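If you are new to this repository, start here. Below is one unmodified record pulled from the training split, so you can see the exact layout before writing a loader.
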Amino acid sequence: MPVDREPPAEQPVLIACDGEPASPEALFNAARLAARAFGGAIEVIGVCLPTPAVTAGMELALTPLGYDEERQATMHENITRTLSVSAHGDRHWPVWVRCGSPPHVLVNEAVARHASLLVMGIGRHNPLDRLFGTETTLSTMRESSVPVLAVSGHFPAAPRRAVIGMDFSPASVHAARLALRLLDDGGHLTLVHVRPRFEHPTADWQAWDTEYGKTLPPLFDQLVAQLHARSTVILDTVTVRGDPAPAVIAYAQQVSADLIGIGTQAHSLVERLMVGSVATRILRTAQCAVLAVPKAAVPLLEHPDIEVTPGVPLHVSDESPQVTHE
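And here is the target side for that same chain:
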């Protein structure tokens, strides 16, 4: 969603919180980390679902006047109480509560407040949640034009190991930039590019794969130079073969990563239901935090100046030919 006016110099970090006691410390740790890395204040947003009208016999029973406002006030009190207990007295963080569809409200509030980041819980992984589209974090990530950091209850206050699913798109490059800023001194960031592996490659595919491989070392060299990683952080690159989402997750588990960063792309409803994006599958199965960066969040000045060999595709999408897992 484009924004007409210039964002403020210091953009806030927005926490999505409902005031429930489940793992709030991880949310607050992630927000503090982002505020230190990106600058700006921390704000908290809660969202109440509107109370649906119900039928009583043959008549429609309307919601009592002011009922939703009371629910918003209760959520505000719960969030404030949670802040005082779990955020070590950070009562100065502004708390806002809105009523509506959580993904829609969170996306709109993040844009309206020029947020640098939206911090959320990783979400539930119940198949029924996915079927009926109530997986709020995933739905928000799909709609957001602001980077979303989804954290579990085990997210550390100072992450030291991050993995970026690198397809050389502007969004994945910006995910690497943001992850570098989130890592603690002594941290380690690995750019992981996934090459397809075909069960029965033809001669044409073998020739394509050979040309594909030749483009990767110079592209990685250009990218590493452009990222300007500080000397206290290790930055390296890895190329693996397989299906993008399982391959990135497997590597992240192998190195005990605290964070997976990915660039996200828009997908139609049919694609999400029948195929699903790489980002969707990573969010649903990752055991660590996930940083999802949409293309719309990439500043124009930060678009990578990377030379791509004509005719050699670099992004392995969901529509690529069938590949085997590592």
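Two things worth knowing about this chain: The first strand starts at residue 13 and ends at 16. The longest helix spans residues 203-227.
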